[in-house]
Amino acid sequence: MQLYQLVEESEFVCTLVDSIIKLEVYSKFVQDISDYIEGCNFLPKLNNEISTERNSTYKQRFASLQNLVLIMFEQDTILIPKETAWFGYYPDGAFHPVLAPQQTKLYIEDWIGLRTLDEAGKVKFISVSGDHLGISSNDMKTYIVPYLEDQKSTVSRPKIEESLFHVWISSIRSSLLKMVGLNQDLKFLN
């Protein structure tokens, strides 16, 4: 599978998730933090938002990155607010102002190791023109390619296989189906 096919599949998943969220944006579930923590299957766990279930392995692995390039798209119509691309977000229970990543509990309490990475100078906060995942070739060459070239490591890393991507997509698909109350295998999502 080619990289552009993986990106297209990721974009489809992002668009699908966004559509489902927009259907419920004014519901109690989306606006109430405790309902979100209890009702969302994967995001609170991934972000270590459940204080009694924080996973130190998530934090350790995230904090061990050599670099983290976070790209925010100025005209993003998928991520709301667009600053979530940098881990910025609204204060609990409010829709304004948008907090910078460094002002969020996730950062301050270092739930996932973002503060550790940032303080080590390993986080790059990049802002580019365009809609979600609409990065230009020039911006890609400027902000992404330098981190992919001439990367030497003393640690032997396993090759990332396409099957891992499909496991991730399958997991998201399952969670989405459960979230909307469907348990059957739907052909159009395959």
Automatic annotation (TrEMBL):
<keyword id="KW-0378">Hydrolase</keyword>
<dbReference type="Pfam" id="PF02089">
    <property type="entry name" value="Palm_thioest"/>
</dbReference>
<dbReference type="GO" id="GO:0016790">
    <property type="term" value="F:thiolester hydrolase activity"/>
</dbReference>
<dbReference type="InterPro" id="IPR029058">
    <property type="entry name" value="AB_hydrolase_fold"/>
</dbReference>
<protein>
    <recommendedName>
        <fullName>Palmitoyl-protein thioesterase</fullName>
    </recommendedName>
</protein>
